[in-house]
Design a protein that fits this description.
By secondary structure, the protein is an alpha+beta fold. Helices cover about 25% and strands about 25% of the residues. It is built from two helices and three strands. A three-stranded antiparallel sheet has the order 2-1-3, with no helix packed on it. The two termini are about 25 Å apart. About 10% of the residues are buried.
Length: about 70
């Protein structure tokens, strides 16, 4: 199962080109300090890389409760 990424906006998009502002919006961010939890895939990683100077990215550990032991 793929993991998750927490993307947090750390800098303003003012004075940046429209493509960077659009990428921030597409990541679900709305301002400095806002965070989104997104699936860890190539598309999201590519978007984060394009605006790496505006965001911080954390890999979230997979939830411990996702696997359930067999009970009989």
């Amino acid at each position: 199962m793929p993991g998750k990424l927490r993307v947090t906006q750390t800098k303003s998009t003012i004075s940046h080109i429209a493509r960077n502002r659009a990428t921030i919006r597409a990541l679900g961010l709305h301002g400095i300090g806002s965070s989104s939890i997104l699936p860890d895939n190539a598309a999201v990683r590519g978007m984060c890389r394009q605006v790496r100077f505006l965001v911080t990215v954390e890999e979230l550990p997979e939830a411990a409760g996702t696997t359930t032991p067999e009970t009989n």
